[in-house]
Amino acid sequence: MERLRHHLLETGYTIDGVRDRLGGVAASALAREELVPALRATADGDPLATLIRLWWLGVPVPAGSVPPEVLDSGLVSADGDQVRATVHLQPWETGGYVVSDRKVRPGDPALRPDHVVGTGGASANLAQLVTRRPVGRALDLGTGCGVQVLHLAGRAEQIVATDVNPRAVKLARLSWELSGVSGVDARTGSMFEPVEDELFDLVVSNPPFVIGPTGELTYREAGGDGFCRDLVRRTPRHLNPGGQAHFLANWLHVEGEDWRERVGGWLRETGCDAWVVQRDVQDPAEYVELWLRDAAEQGTKGYTEHYDRWLAWFEERKVEGVGFGWITMRNSGTLDPVVRVEHLDHQVALPVGDYVDSVIDAIAAAHRAKELGKAHLRTADGLLDERIGLPGAEDPIRIVLRQTQGLRRSREVGTVEAALAGVCDGELALGPLLNVIAELVGDGEIPDADAVRPLIAEGYFLL
After folding, report:
1. How far is CA 234 from the centre of its chain?
2. What is the pTM of this model?
C-alpha cells in the first residue's frame, strides 16, 4: 500500500489532479454518473488517464499501461491483455484515498448484501457537520469505507472505528493505509456492542438510515426509523462529560403525527442537550425512486415489483413523507437538558462544524439563563436589518433580521427587537436597554426580557 500510495501521488491522482485532467464538462457529467465525456478526456492513455479509467471510471485498461505498483497491490485482476480494478479507489478532499466496492451502474449485477459503498453526499454532509475542536477519544460507528476517520485524523488522539460488516472493516483499513493514517482501532460488531462500557469525547455515525421493507443491504438499510431512534437513545451512556455526537438520520412523517414530536421524543429521555435539523423532506414515491436508483435497480425486471412493495409498506404505516437531516447531542451534565428541533432548507455556511459548538451553546444558554434582564447581550456579527415599506411611509411594513454568517437564519421582528440589535454591545444589561428602547420607539410599555430568548437561541444575540 505504501508503494501504491507514492505512485498515486507522483502520478497526480488527487482531487485537483483528476479535476484538472478531466476538465469542467467531463467532471460535471461524471457527477451525474455519465461516463462518456470522461472516457473521451482520458482516451490518450497517459499514466494519470490510466489511473482515472481504472480506479474511478471502473473500465478495463491495457495491461501494458499498468505499472508494477498497481499490479502488485492486490486491488486489480488480469483478464487477458487487460487489467480491471476489483475495487473503487478515489482521492478524497483530505488528501487521502478511499477504497470501496466498485460503483454500481445500470446493467450491473445486483449488489451483494455486504456491499461497501463509497463516498457520496451523505459522507460529505456528516464530515461538514462534525465539530472541529480537538478531542481525546473518537468513535466512528458504522465506518463503512472509513472516510470519516480521514477527517478525524489529526483532531482525535485515539480513534475507534466499528462496522457490522467485516468486509467494510477490511476495505476501511486499506483506505487508512493509502491515506497514511495509522493507529486506528478497528472492530467488527453491531451498534455499540464492540465498545460496550467505553466512553468517548466524540461519536460520529452515518448509519444505515434508509427506511424500507427489506433491510437486505447492510450498508444503508435497517427497516424503519427505529435504528436511528435506538442509536440516539443508546449514545449518552458512551459520552464523556461534555462529549458530543453527530449523526445523519431519516425519520418518518406519519399521518396525524408531528414529525418534531416524533424525533424530539427520541431525545427527550437522553439527558443530553440536542439539536435536530431537518434539511429535506420527500414524499414516499420520491423516496423510493431515489434509493432504487441508488442501487441501480431502474430498468431491471424486479423494479416495478420492488417499487410497489415499498409503497405498500409505507401505506400500511400511514407514511406521508420521509425527512432527512442532522442530529447533534452533547452530554452537558445538566438535569435540565434542552432539545431543539427545526427545519432549515436554505443554504448555510459550510462547514457547519466550524460553528456547531456555538449553536449548541446558544440553544442551551437561552434555555437556562436566569434573570435575563440582568444579562449583557451583544449583537451577532454580520447581522443585517432589512426594512420593507411603502415609498414615503414613515414606518416599515416589515422588519427582518438576517444573518450573513453561520446558519444564515432570518426572522421578522418588531421595532423594539430591531432597535435592540442596533445598540447591543455588551456594555449595558438587557433590562435597562429595553426600558430606554420602549420609551423611544415603543408605546411606553416595557417589553418582557424573556421575549428575547428565541433570538438568543437562534444566534441573533450572544449572551
Report:
1. 20
2. 0.93
What's the pLDDT at 220?
Answer: 76
User: What is the pLDDT, as a whole number, of residue 428?
Assistant: 92
With beta carbons less than 8 A apart as the criterion, state whether 460 and 380 touch: yes
Neighbours of 456 (CB within 10 A): 22
For residues 461 and 265, give the distance between their C-alpha atoms in angstroms, rounded to a whole number: 28
Q: Are strands 398-403 and 410-413 parallel, antiparallel or unpaired?
A: antiparallel
CA torsion sign for 435, 437, 442, 444 is: positive
Whether the CA torsion 147, 148, 149, 152 is positive or negative: it is: positive
Q: Which segments of the chain have a pLDDT < 50?
A: none
Strand order in the sheet with 383-388: 383-388, 398-403, 410-413
pLDDT at 32: 84
